[in-house]
Amino acid sequence: MKKKLLAMALVTAMSLSLVACGGGSDSGSGSAEGSGESAGGAESTGVSITIFNTKSEIQDQFVEMAEEYSAATGVDVEIYYSSDTVAAHLATRYSANDPYTISMVDAKDVYSLGAEHAIDLSDEEWVANTDYAISVDGKVMGFPVCIEARGVMYNATAIEAITGEEFKPENYDTLDAFQGLLDQLVAGGMEAPTGIMKEDWSMGAHYLAQVYEEQSDVEAFVTSLHEGSADLANNEKWNSLMDTFDVLMKYNYAAGSPVAAEREVSEQKLAEGEIAFMFGGNWDWSMINAYDYSEKMGMMPVPQNTSDGSNKKLVGGGSKYFIIDSSENTSAEQQQAAKDFLNWLVFDEAGNKFLTEDCALVPAYSNINADALDPLSISVKAYADGGNLIGNYDYLPDDHYSKNGASFQKYLAGQVDRAGLASEIESYWSSTTPVEH
After folding, report:
1. Alpha helices, DSSP H only, in 198-296?
2. By the 8 A CB rule, do 308 and 18 touch?
3. Is 174:308 a contact under the CB 8 Å cutoff?
4. What per-residue confidence (pLDDT) applies to 415?
5. d(CA 353, CA 264)
6. What is the C-alpha end-to-end distance of the chain, expressed in Å?
7. Which residues contact 226 (CB under 8 A, 6 or more apart)?
8. Per residue in 87-118, pLDDT tens?
9. Higher model confidence: residue 436 or residue 81?
């Protein structure tokens, strides 16, 4: 087994709440500060910027990048990380008149914070190179950091070793076909072919959210949840996705104690072929690549017995956005240095490499070469390029994943049935204030 990377040690030490979406506790920072001549040679500009990162799995890469960027440009860069809810953490910084120069936020935060706290980026050159920028009041304010998507991760090597034939995920997009394959794997000696991440963010923010995102009218459905008029237990999408979840539970390697399963163990089992399938996203590669992984891995849509085509698409889109602070606490020189950093990411070869190779992120920009992407991200890019992504719903309340994730954990542990889970989710929504957008 390959030794874990330094970045993995950092991730394990931190709370991993909501890896793809932000989420839970203290701040940490890594700095690349200096005076006079920066390490590596560039004359110091006297300008310092701070960058707030909310993707725990790439914090180590950000810190290393900051040191190299400072050495090359003379701009002092300090990186911060927090697993707190993004909105709550930034509210504390704003109230203390100590905002970050650049903040990585979720899409809904761009909408809620942009008008008051972000500068207009409409005239920036990179805007023409992406379809994922976010505008507020007609002004581009959100710089898309990457594209991310979720679905079922697979290890084709492990599957083919048993079936003796090439694994084609499109052949298993229905639940019936998928379960037939699982039975074949069990018969061939793979005792338990699936894994389930028990984390509240995985089940509450990712799997459950797909129930909303696959509705024919997402806004109307969420409104009905808020109003208490939704009948989740009899909703077609709810039952379709829960049927699949039940199958994943049935073949789960940790079925005897599912809530005790450690994410790292599940990721390793998938990477090394002890299991064949697990729901997740391309961000999981940051953990999978620490093990003796198969090169023949990828992502496929969640199998469902449905006729609306949703079983042929991943769910995803622009994920994580940078905004630049607009307050008087951030000088014009700092704002320009922040713009320069964003342009570096999009147009400089070193910036491109940082995104696609160091951080294993799917670029949201048409000019960035993505040949070096990992297997999961290659799958995501293929679905994105083909127009086969179901869009994220960007307006979930901040406590949605923790509250409903806890309910989902009860279901996973057999402490509540499907109807009871639906009732708990409906109760949550009917007592929650809608997110303004």
Report:
1. 200, 208-213, 218-227, 236-250, 263-272, 285-288
2. no
3. no
4. 97
5. 26
6. 47
7. 429, 430, 432, 434
8. 899 999 999 999 999 999 999 899 999 999 99
9. 81
